[in-house]
Design goal:
The protein is of the alpha+beta class. 23% of the residues lie in helices and 26% in strands. Strands 5, 6, 7, 8, 9, 10, 11, 14 and 17 form a 9-stranded antiparallel β-sheet that branches. Strands 19, 20, 21, 22, 23 and 24 form a 6-stranded mixed β-sheet that branches. It has a 4-stranded mixed β-sheet with strand order 1-2-3-18. The longest helix has 18 residues. The model has no long low-confidence stretch (mean pLDDT 97). The structure holds flavin mononucleotide (FMN).
């Protein structure tokens, strides 16, 4: 059986990682806060006020442990397993039909208010579809793109769409140059590895549905859309078919974003009009509550960490990288490594700050004796192994992420030039390298007498 949201639910259930909520929950007033509180378990809502018969799933994955489960690996091995799988591609296989065609609604039947779309944050402009994966194509070559975009509900058949200038935005520019609406298919609810693929930034030519196949280890099975020349996974929960209006912008946002702030991206952004919805007869709505270290950040962190690992491991021909962790807020990354030469860690950190991903502006290298999943060890390492006049370097005037509120915004959201310019910093908190054993030895960590031989629990 192909992997989909149902197989993922079964996997989470078998691992004891779901909390089932049977009491009534209001998606517009209560769901956000419940998801926010559930940092360890996925939440499956069975009783949604105002949406009889609907269920909704969120915080799935709630953390990196769940991500490791989805990739069928261990937390410590996640970066390596994902980096390996990211190299694989399987071309999607088109099939005649699938569960996502159980219900087909067209024209006047299209009504987004039928879906239990939740309001995430107290200052959000309204309800947003947050777990919709948007598929568009290059109008000339047909090259496909799949990515996440926040979609503010603006009417029964209308949403906004926020486009950071990357591939979907480039496709829209190409349609706008011809003054044509851009067809867009959005699927809501699937196996998390589809979401990981969509959050992967690669080359413009990369087809994220082929990548999803690579991550899943099986080709994605697609069906044709009803009203546009687009293919979508046949076993998604819900599909929306529409067009982005050319040359048109409307107020969009604010929205509770991944860095835990509201304002970034808010402004005049494009609008989608939908002409069809298809879905399973018992479709489960997939919500996603944003915020630091929430589900959306897990989808970001995993492919980002793996892509950065893949980039830095060949710095200087070979660098002994032990692990990579993207830090809360997504604007920082920690690299665990064994430095072999003086200067090597700094080279690695420069590469980490200059990958496919614009997010990281803080890059920290720690040595192989630091547990990077334990934040106090990272802070201890910075405090005790960094000589600021040598080990901290700031790079000024770099292009940083368009939604990093610390830096100056040049050109507004909704335009192809939307960007921010600011500084990046590298912090080398490694010990001296293997090539200087005497200097390295000074930083050997203390161990208590009896270490490894006695355990406190045996004395209680
Ligand atoms: C939960 C989540 C929400 C996102 N929301 C947006 C968004 O609203 N607008 C946007 O441009 N990118 C958003 N992204 C980022 C893109 O989907 C992601 O960077 C993707 O790799 C871009 O694909 P592309 O480079 O092929 O265009 C989001 C990512 C995640 C994980």
């Amino acid at each position: 059986m192909s992997k989909d949201m149902r197989t993922w639910l079964a996997q989470l259930d078998a691992a004891g990682e779901i909390t089932e909520i049977n009491k009534p929950v209001d998606p517009l007033k209560e769901m956000g806060a419940l998801l926010w509180q559930s940092r360890e378990k996925a939440l499956l809502f069975h009783n949604l006020k105002g949406y009889p018969g609907w269920r909704a799933l969120g915080q799935a994955p709630a953390n990196l442990r769940h991500a490791a489960l989805a990739f069928e690996t261990e937390l410590e091995n996640l970066v390596f397993a994902v980096a390996e799988k990211m190299k694989r591609r399987f071309k999607p296989e088109q099939v005649e039909t699938g569960p996502v065609k159980d219900v087909v609604l067209k024209a006047k039947e299209v009504d987004l208010s039928r879906l239990p779309i939740h309001i995430g944050g107290t200052r959000d402009a309204g309800a947003f579809i947050t777990a919709g994966l948007c598929i568009t194509k290059d109008p000339e070559t047909g090259i496909r793109n799949m990515s996440f975009h926040r979609l503010q509900v603006k009417g029964p058949n209308r949403t906004g769409i926020l486009l950071v200038p990357r591939h979907t935005s480039l496709n829209l520019q190409k349609y706008e140059a011809k003054n044509k609406p851009m067809p867009i298919a959005i699927f809501i609810g699937h196996h998390p590895l589809y979401y990981m693929a969509a959050a992967t930034t690669g080359s413009y030519e990369m087809d994220e549905l082929e990548l999803a196949g690579g991550l899943l280890g099986e080709p994605v099975k697609t069906v044709k859309c009803e009203t546009i020349d687009m293919e979508v996974p046949c076993d998604a929960e819900i599909v929306l078919e529409g067009h982005v209006l050319p040359g048109y912008r409307e107020e969009e946002g604010p929205f509770s974003e991944f860095q835990d702030y509201y304002i970034s991206g808010t402004g005049k952004n494009p609008v989608i009009e939908f002409q069809a919805i298809t879905m399973r007869k018992d479709a489960i709505y997939k919500n996603l509550q944003n915020g630091s270290e929430m589900e959306g950040c897990i989808f970001h962190k995993v492919p980002m960490g793996a892509a950065i690992y893949d980039r830095i491991r060949t710095v200087g021909g070979f660098a002994d990288i032990k692990n990579v962790l993207v830090l809360p807020g997504i604007f920082g990354v920690v690299v665990q490594m064994t430095p072999r030469f003086y200067g090597e860690a700094k080279n690695v950190l420069m590469a980490a700050l200059s990958s496919e991903y614009l997010h990281p502006k803080v890059a920290i290298a720690v040595d192989d004796d630091i547990n990077i999943f334990n934040y106090w060890e990272i802070l201890w390492s910075i405090n005790t192994r960094v000589n600021p006049e040598e080990d901290i370097i700031t790079l000024n005037g770099t292009r940083i992420h368009s939604m990093d509120p610390t830096a100056k915004e040049l050109f507004p959201p909704g335009t192809p030039s939307w960007q921010r310019i600011g500084g990046k910093v590298i912090i080398d908190a490694t010990k001296p390298p293997l090539s200087d054993p005497e200097a390295r030895g000074i930083f050997e960590r203390i161990l208590p007498m009896g270490h490894g031989n006695v355990s406190l629990k045996d004395y209680l």
